[in-house]
Amino acid sequence: MMSPELKDNDFKKIVRLVYEQCGINLHDGKRELVKARLSKRLREAGFTSFADYYRYVVSEYGSYELTSMIDSISTNMTYFFREDGHFQKLRTIIPAMTEEKGHNGHTPKLRIWTAGCSTGEEPYSLAITLKEHSSKIEATILATDISSKVLKTATNGIYLNEKLKNILPGILKKYFQYGCGEWAGYYRVKDEIRRMIQFIKFNLMDPPPPDFIFDIIFCRNVMIYFDKTTQGLLVNRFYNCLKDGGYFFVGHAESLSGISHPFKYIEPSVYRKHS
User: Fold this and answer.
1) Who contacts 124 (Cβ-Cβ below 8 Å, separation ≥6)?
2) Where are the beta strands (DSSP E) in the chain?
3) What average pLDDT values come out for the chain (275 residues) when binned by 10 residues?
4) Options 10, 71, 145, 215, the catalytic residue
């Protein structure tokens, strides 16, 4: 079955709608991606044109399909310990951060936010890194994404073998369970790691709640989908969500250059809030 044509006017309407809903800036270079991902939605929902599909998702009956559309557009590739340099950096900053919090015999506590967590590989990688560093740290990780679909995968914590190819055998055995029978070829993250993470749906275009206060924020390979205006808004929101001395990580291909912000530059893709 041939995919319907994505006409210029329909593409512009979809681009505007996606931007209004979640801030993602879909330039012309993303046209084929939009067509490929939404053609599947059209087939599953029974539409034969993008124009009819658009009219439906903006109607009073189309809210559920609008969510599915945003899910399709916003889902990005990820894998365990992606951009491993950040996890190595985390290991170097944890001692000082936990020493400050662990005085007077108190258990050191860290609160981390992974914004745009996708299918969960990033927050699980963070949790494993913290566990490997010290069992005495009480760490909680809030993992958010706009997509209900990817959050379901993340919450289940079950992954195909190929997703874990970068994990050392010792770490794999220590923190994952291998599936049997119909689950052969899959691994599940063990409960001790899963308990460290709370997955919730959150749109980065919405103002963060008052309890969004963290020691460390990861927002990697997410802001590349936003324009400079939206990036500036988000970066300054992240700054306000960090405790003094907290760290902010962006993707290795990302930078805060050209954005007005109060962060202190530490090294490429790593920033800090003044203490």
Assistant:
1) 80, 157, 189, 193, 197
2) 109-115, 138-145, 158-160, 176-178, 186-189, 197-201, 214-218, 242-249, 264-267, 270-272
3) 84 94 87 91 91 94 90 82 93 81 68 96 96 82 94 95 88 94 93 96 95 96 90 96 96 90 96 90
4) 145
φ, ψ of residue 177 in degrees (nearest 5): -110, 130
Per-residue pLDDT at 219: 96
pLDDT for residue 105:
60
- 37 catalytic? Reply is yes
> Is the whole model's pTM more than 0.90, yes or no?
no
Q: Where are the domains of the chain?
A: 8-74, 85-272
In the block, tokens 């090294």 appear at: 267
Give the domain 8-74 fold. Answer: Chemotaxis Receptor Methyltransferase Cher; domain 1 (1.10.155)
The reply to whether domains 8-74 and 85-272 share a CATH topology is no
Of 37, 41, 82, 237, catalytic = 37
CATH superfamily of domain region 85-272: Vaccinia Virus protein VP39 (3.40.50.150)
Q: Any catalytic annotation for residue 145? A: yes
